[in-house]
Amino acid sequence: MVVQEVTHDLRTAAGKTDARQPPRYALRLLGGFGLERDGRTVAVPQGARRLLAFLGVRQRCARAEAAGTLWPGSHEERARANLRTMLWRLHRVTPEPLVAEDDQLALAVGVTSDVASLAAAAAALLAGAPPLGAPVPALATGELLPGWYDDWVLTERERLRQTRLYALEALAELLTAQGRFGEAVQVALTAVQLEPLRESATRVLITVHLAERNINEAVRRLELFRADLGRELGVAPTPWLEHLVRASRAGATVPLP
C-alpha cells in the first residue's frame, strides 16, 4: 500500500553506517512502545518508558509540565523528585543521552519518534504537498500506545487518530487529482477502515470512484455506508453525499461543499 511505502530501508542503512557515525535511535509509539539503536532493540525499564513516550509525543516541554502530567496525583515537590529519578534512570539505559535537558526537556539529537514523523507528514499533506514531495510514513500503523490508559495518552491518542484520518483523506484527494486512482482507492479504503462511520472518508472514496467513472462502485459504497449508518446510529447519509452520486450518474458534477 502507498501508506506503507518508505523511501529507504533504515535498518539496512543503519547496518552500513560508519562506526565513527553517532548512533541513531528510533522511538516507536504507534502500535506499541519500542526503542531501537541502529536497528537493534533497546530494553527500557517500564517506569522510564512513560517519560520517553511523553517526550516522543510532545517533543519539547517544561519540566513542570512533564512532572505534573506524568504524576498528576502527586504533590509538586514529589512529582519533581519523581521526574529527576526518571531522568537518572533514562541516562543509564544507553551510552548516549536520550533526553536533552536545558530550560526544557526534549528528545536528544539523534532520537527520532514515529509520532513526530506522522505529524510532519500529515502537516505536509494538509498543506497540499504532493505525496512524492514529502516523506509519508505508514499512516495506517497502530494506535498510540495501546494498553496505556494515562489521561494524557488518551487525549493524544484521539488527536493522532484524527490527524491520521485527515492526512489519509488529503493524500487520497491528491492522488486522485494526479490520476493515480488505484493508489487513491487504497488510501481512501484505509481511512474508511479506520472509521467506517466517518462520512468525509466515505465521500473521498466515492469521489475516487466517480473520478475514474466507476459509477457502480460509487453507488455500492453509498449503499454500504447508508446501511452502516442506519444500523449503528439510526441516521442516513447527508443529502449532499446522495446528491453527489445521483448527479454523477446523470453525468453532472457537484462541487465540494
Question: Topology, pairings included?
Answer:
Layout: H1 10-15, E1 25-28, E2 34-37, E3 40-41, H2 46-58, E4 60-62, H3 63-70, H4 76-91, E5 99-101, E6 104-107, E7 111-113, H5 114-126, H6 151-177, H7 181-194, H8 199-211, H9 215-232, H10 239-249
Parallel strand pairs: 1-7
Antiparallel strand pairs: 1-2, 2-3, 4-6, 5-6
Helix pairs in contact: 2-4, 3-4, 5-6, 6-7, 6-8, 7-8, 8-9, 9-10
Describe this structure in words.
There is one protein chain. With 257 residues, this protein is α+β, with helices and mostly antiparallel strands. The protein has 10 helices and 7 strands. The protein has helices at residues 10-15, 46-58, 63-70, 76-91, 114-126, 151-177, 181-194, 199-211, 215-232, 239-249; strands spanning 25-28, 34-37, 40-41, 60-62, 99-101, 104-107, 111-113. The strands form 2 sheets. The chain has a 4-stranded mixed beta sheet with strand order 3-2-1-7. The chain is elongated and about 70 Å long.
| Low-confidence sequence ranges | 4-19, 133-137
The count of DSSP E runs of length 2 or more, i.e. the number of strands, is 7
Average pLDDT score:
87
Question: Which radius of gyration do the C-alpha atoms yield?
Answer: 22 Å
Please describe the biggest sheet, giving its number of strands, its sense, and whether it closes into a barrel.
4 strands, mixed
Coarse shape: elongated
The secondary-structure class comes to alpha+beta
The largest beta-sheet arranges its strands as 3-2-1-7
Give the number of helices.
10
Distance between the termini: 29 Å
Order of helices and strands: HEEEHEHHEEEHHHHHH
Strand content: 5-15%
